[in-house]
Design goal:
Layout lengths: L1 H29 L9 H15 L7 H25 L6 E6 L8 E12 L10 E14 L5 E14 L2 E6 L2 E4 L6 E16 L1
Parallel strand pairs: 1-2, 2-3, 3-7, 4-7
Antiparallel strand pairs: 4-5, 4-6
């Protein structure tokens, strides 16, 4: 009996996922409705997880577990990719440190490695400062008493802003005080980004 239910459950889930994808694709193609495709992978992962919970009493479901593992990897990679698309892979590879003493530049970038941008002696520019690392670690140091607006995110990894941390897939943190002198946009594709005071 259990031998019959295992493939049926896997086939049911796989068929259901294909029907959902096809229906969404049809809606997207035949109407003006914008289908939010970014929710498809997490939704599919939830369906597989729910099926595994439902069928847990009927024995092992190796096929569903394999699908779940693949979907989990795809969710992680897609979250990283969303940030990596925004992060230009420029600036070289290795360990870099910048400490401007005049007006700060508007961009600081590193493809792979560790990047430190110390703004404690810098004058704030009129526009946001964009700082990014494709793969690695990013540390931004701001003046201790400055009013700073921060928008920080990572595709996969950890984001720490003034001691408050978020980690996992797609973590982000924002500080948006009024009258900010510095506006910092800090992004890491895969790795860690930290914004702290000097």
């Amino acid at each position: 009996m259990n031998g019959e239910r295992t493939p049926r459950l896997g086939h049911l889930v796989l068929g259901g996922l294909l029907v959902i994808i096809g229906a969404l694709w049809l809606v997207d193609a035949l109407s003006d409705t914008d289908v939010p495709w970014e929710i498809l992978l997490p939704a599919a992962l939830m369906v597989v997880g729910g099926a595994l919970v439902y069928g847990s009493s009927s024995g092992p479901h190796g096929g569903l577990i394999s699908i779940g593992v693949v979907l989990t990897v795809l969710v992680v990679l897609s979250s990283a990719f969303e940030v990596l698309v925004d992060v230009r892979f420029s600036g070289g590879v290795g360990e870099r440190a910048h400490k401007p003493t005049g007006v700060a530049d508007l961009e600081y970038r590193l493809a792979i490695g560790n990047l430190t941008v110390d703004l404690t002696a810098a004058q704030p520019p009129d526009q946001p400062i964009e700082i990014s690392v494709g793969l690695g670690q990013l540390v931004v140091i701001v003046p201790r008493n400055a009013v700073v607006e921060v928008r920080a995110k990572a595709g996969v990894g950890e984001v720490v802003v003034f001691g408050t941390a978020s980690s996992g897939i797609g973590p982000q943190r924002e500080e948006t005080p009024a009258g900010a002198s510095f506006v910092i946009i800090a992004e890491v594709g895969i790795g860690k980004v930290e914004v702290k005071r000097g």
